[in-house]
Amino acid sequence: MTTPTITTSALRSSTNHAKASTALGFPLVPQNLLEIGDLDGPTIIGLLDLAIELKADPARFSQVLGGMSIALIFEKPSLRTRASLEVGIHRLGGHAVLFDQQDSLIGARESVHDLGRNLERWFDAVAARVHRHEVLDELATYCDVPVLNTLSDRHHPCQTLADLLTLHERGLVLADSHVAFVGDGNNVCHSLIQGMVAVGGRMTVISPEDHGPDPEVIENARVVAARTGAEILVTSDPAAAAGAEAVYTDSWISMGEVETPAKLASLARFRVDAALMAIAGPKALFMHCLPAHRGEEVTAEVIDGANSVVFDQAENRLHAQNAWLVARLSR
Ligand code: CP
Ligand code: NVA
Questions:
Q1: Which residues does ligand 1 sit against, CB inside 6 Å?
Q2: How far is ligand 1, taken at its centre, from the CA of residue 311, in Å?
């Protein structure tokens, strides 16, 4: 039996959108994705399952964004996010327009309010990578089309969707999985915490006390964990990685941050090397959002080793983001 190509116009012509969506199996997602905490566990799993379908049979979804245009705004450099969004939107039949704002920050030439009010007149969604997370909140307030956070100083939700997809597609049950993030408690760490607690998994953050995750993120994660049955531990003891299904790290200095010798010195003990992977165990996967700095947060032996899934994560950026785009824009 051939599965018909899904088109947005077909969905829109339906007299019962909810039924059409349910029949097609698309999860209902909120208007904006500014942080992973905007999604609950079942919605995340629904998106991951949709991403697996998109990955297996992209032709079936080739016209879902037909006639739609999406603005891509970047205040910071990017390889994976820009490539996966431009290629991904093209595969869904949509059109991406790039705004490179690296030399002119959002809100400088005109207010975020006016930017949002303009963009909503032409675009069906806006994806933005910004220095200050508050800019996304403001954009989402004034722009009447969905806003997707493609990295801010506080969150990187697209990355976490791809990371969870990388585990889920390997058959790992996220609710039974233990992920250990080692290193700087940054934007990627915050999103991973939110994702793992939403799906009811076990999340361990191993970082120096002076560079741990934001206490507010942890406090909120504990509230969610109480509801989902997740476990969360923040420690500076690498032994806490024992038995983890995956060990994750990210760069010690994030984009836009000033490198200091003191921070590098604090993090030196948190490099992911063969000894740390051995604590997790022989089956533990190694994960990194990339770009990586071999010899700094991770040794070459680990990132180039057999257990490394970093390029699967990079590929999955496309499928995970497309799942969100399909779920959000095809109704
Ligand atoms: N992981 C990630 O977001 O990569 P880029 O900065 O290259 O987009
Ligand atoms: N924490 C890193 C992630 C890069 C994808 C940064 O913000 O630069």
A1: 78-81, 151, 159, 289-290
A2: 12
The pair of three-digit structure tokens given for residue 169, joined into one six-digit string: 């597609």
> Would you state the structure tokens that stand for residue 120, as one six-digit string?
């909503």
Do both 39 and 134 map to the same domain?
Answer: yes
Domain count, the chain: 2
Q: Are residues 137 and 212 in the same domain?
A: no
Residue type present at position 156:
H
Q: What is the CATH number of the domain that holds 325?
A: 3.40.50.1370
Residue 5 lies in a domain: no
Q: What is the DSSP letter of 194?
A: H
CB 92 within 8 A of CB 322: yes
Q: Which of 133, 156, 288, 328 is catalytic?
A: 156
Q: Other CB atoms closer than 10 Å to residue 49's CB: what's the count?
A: 16
Global pTM value: 0.94
Summarize the confidence of residues 256-265 as an average pLDDT: 97
Q: Domain limits at 109?
A: 17-156+317-329
Express each pLDDT in 14-69 by its tens digit: 323 333 343 467 999 999 999 999 999 999 999 999 999 999 999 999 999 999 99
